[in-house]
Design goal:
140 residues, alpha+beta, 3 strands, rod-shaped
Length: 140
């Protein structure tokens, strides 16, 4: 039986101790794919969160507008509604800013016909984010 010299065993072991360039590239490619999939999911959840926040904001604005109506006996003027209901909200005059930069909530008085045929006025809010469907409160 022939004995292998110790130096040749050490040489083979030291050659195998490092990763090859191909192995490193494969690992990096797998990490990039995983990061891409994760980021797509995160951005989708962030957009869903913005829509949820917009609905919650518009619901709070509806409560503030109804509170204004209770106190003054009339709906706020749609052309100056932010100044009129701002003091009734936590955000003050920034209450009309939506989660999307540069997009403001829009307020209008919707007139419906009641069961008895009499007109009923209700506040309505709209958020029109760019590239997304319009969001109404109360939902249509």
């Amino acid at each position: 039986m022939m004995l292998t010299p110790v130096r040749s065993i050490q040489r083979r072991a030291s050659r195998r101790a490092a990763f090859t360039l191909l192995e490193v590239l494969v690992v990096v490619a797998i990490l990039v794919i995983l990061a891409g999939v994760a980021s797509i999911s995160i951005f989708r959840y962030m957009e869903d969160a913005k829509v949820g926040r917009a609905k919650a904001d518009m619901q709070a604005l509806e409560k503030a507008v109804k509170s204004y109506y209770t106190q003054h006996g009339e709906w706020p003027d749609p052309s100056n509604w932010i100044a009129q209901i701002g003091p009734l909200t936590e955000q003050g005059l920034g209450c009309a800013q939506s989660p999307w930069p540069g997009v403001m909530y829009q307020y209008n008085i919707r007139t419906d016909v009641g069961v008895d045929g009499q007109p009923i006025q209700r506040p309505e809010f709209l958020c029109a984010p760019p590239g997304k469907p319009e969001i109404y409160w109360p939902p249509r």
